[in-house]
Write a structure and sequence with these properties.
homotrimer, 287 residues, four-stranded mixed beta sheet, 15 helices, 10 strands, globular
Chain lengths: 287, 287, 287
């Protein structure tokens, strides 16, 4: 993190391509082959959030993905310990979780806007929920929290945000079914701000970002902070969800079901990842 | 409640027909002539919730009604003391209310899905709101909280759930107008998860139930419990609403207006019950 | 405030035309040339709320505007001290703010319904949010919180109500973009109860008002009070927002941007007021 924050920020991450345009930073996740949330992505995100916390940081950040099919498929399930260790570097003791990292994202002075094409599942959905706003391409965006179908509740904010945004009934449906939600249903339920035609998405988001980028920083920070005070979960809530996830994801059921999914091609670019909601529904049911 | 819970559960209630299919129990309310929530229905519901609290209970329950016009019209207003006495058997001291019984329903380890055709008014709507998810037939489902039109606030969770699900403005509209809401408006306001064509309702709900029924029980229970911790009212809130209802429903205004409605056919299968929202609007206004 | 409250209420405000019809009071704001929220409107609103707090007051109030283009454009930015002094007369110490005045509006025993045609921006939107229900004309209603674009967070309840009604993501969008929202988008986000064709708006609202006006007063008050207990912000939250607004609206950035807007015709009946959302986006961006 150099003195000249703006220049330094435009080229320095292995898995995040950044481009600064006035007060607006575009940050594009690029972690081939699948954009899994693994140690590298988390390491880079920790560093980017650090830079964005600086007083000279851009007012607005647009997050999107270089992979049209996968914004973030989910975490790398073979590297839970490793990415958690990276996440720990963002905070103090007790903060070794994606949930606490995403809470830091929610509290950035910068305004964060997610532009969703393709799939955002699990911690991918939770990353989006931690952003300030979410806009989705109607034709191809898919959101899901597949964790319960595997064997654990979502652990990085999904429980907290979905319950507050969707209300009890729809949050229970989203979380307990582990189903894929298309953009229109996600919009109706409040999971995203709006679903718009893919062809209009870039212009909509660029317009919002440029507009906000021209507004007084003090007012932006004060307003966001006041809204956060009402709507963000407490650290205790986030830590409790993370602890439960880290316990159950290593449990017998989740281990078995994850192994079965890997046999079917989990974490490879194929049918299981493209239609994970279906794959979960087709796993052998449990007694 | 026998040792072999699953068999025992499939045939033993006077007003609830049950059928077990794998991990999914179907529970169909059948209390002719009108499916009023009276002492018998409450007695059977208390017993069913007891069975569903057992570790061997099915993972998922689908609730529907044998009466295509009336899921639950409302409580039996001639037997408030009697059904309240039955409800008291579900809990500890201070729990003598439908509200506390419905709160127990919300906290079951089993996942509860309501399938709505016809009318669910008053405590009928509150029963649905206490379930985990609600799906409604677009052509014929009707929801309302008619209590204020009679002379008391809703007392069994309607205030709590509608305010959290719909927000202040729409909850005030629903509760203060005591109007009938059709399925589409109920969906737009968040009173039900979704309104779908009647012809698609059974398949939608069966699919969701079977899917959830195949998922790990520990994860379902943990996720539901975490969502409940954020979204359910406290026992104190539920008890306060129940106490106010039990007081005002016996007050002068409610007694007069209930008597007038009985003259018009309340609790009979006729125009007043079919269009209760209209009937309430046509009662002589008060000074 | 006379003994015969009902007669006294029908003709006595300089900027509010009132008309009593049974239990329903119609209150039409009329403060030409632009319906700005200035000292006169606030003075009259303080007096009207006082009358509406009386036990003999009408059960229901419909608020609308005599100006088809401007329900309330926003506060009179040249008279912040003056209207704040008027607002102070409604409450106790610490209540010198529109926010606390609007909180008093939310807690009236009377049921308040806003009928929106034209623009309701800033404190105009916050007035509507403090009412119990809001219905908007699809063709011409516009809502916005333009404060952040000027240089301060909204200070009279907008932060509190929008976060609770719209959820974190949509509230951040509404507040941070300071954009104009049309009636349809406002309905989808929950900013208004419903958007309906202009030609149907009067009948819809009159029907709801007459219906509620015929219901028992005790039940209306008890139900509204129970919903308020869950959904209204605390006085401390309202006061904190007001204090921040009163500080930042006098700050350097807001002063500069307000001056620039005045050069463009702010508070005159012209393009800047008709399309304030656009004008804010076209102000010179800040470094």
């Amino acid at each position: 993190m150099g003195e000249d924050g703006k220049i330094g920020m435009t080229a320095s991450y292995e898995t995040i391509n950044t481009r600064l345009d006035g007060n607006v930073l575009s940050a594009t996740f690029h972690a081939p082959p699948l954009n899994l949330i693994g140690p590298e992505v988390v390491r880079d995100l920790v560093a980017l959030l650090d830079e964005l916390s600086a007083p000279t940081a851009p007012r607005v950040v647009i997050f999107d993905s270089a992979d049209a099919d996968f914004f973030f498929p989910h975490v790398d399930l073979t590297k839970v310990a490793e990415y958690t260790a990276e996440a720990a570097k963002a905070g103090g003791p007790g903060d070794a979780s994606l949930g606490m990292l995403f809470r830091k994202l929610s509290r950035l002075p910068a305004v964060t806007i997610a532009k969703l094409r393709g799939r955002a599942r699990g911690a991918g959905s939770e990353f989006l929920l931690a952003c300030d706003m979410r806009f989705a391409a109607r034709e191809n965006a898919i959101l899901s929290q597949p964790e319960v179908g595997i064997g654990t509740p979502p652990g990085a904010g999904g429980i907290q945000h979905l319950t507050r945004l969707l209300g009890r009934g729809r949050a229970l449906e989203a979380v307990l079914t582990s189903s894929d939600f298309d953009a229109d249903l996600a919009e109706r339920y409040g999971w995203v701000n709006r679903a718009v035609p893919d062809a209009e998405l870039d212009e909509l988001v660029a317009g919002i970002a440029a507009r906000i980028g021209g507004f007084p920083r003090d007012a932006l920070i004060a307003a966001k902070s006041a809204i956060n005070a009402i709507s963000l979960p407490t650290p205790a809530e986030v830590r409790a969800d993370a602890a439960l996830f880290q316990q159950l994801v290593r449990g017998e059921k989740a281990t078995q079901r994850t192994a079965e999914l890997f046999k079917q091609g989990l974490q490879s670019r194929g049918a299981t990842e493209f239609a994970l909601g279906e794959a979960l529904g087709n796993l052998p049911p449990l007694d």
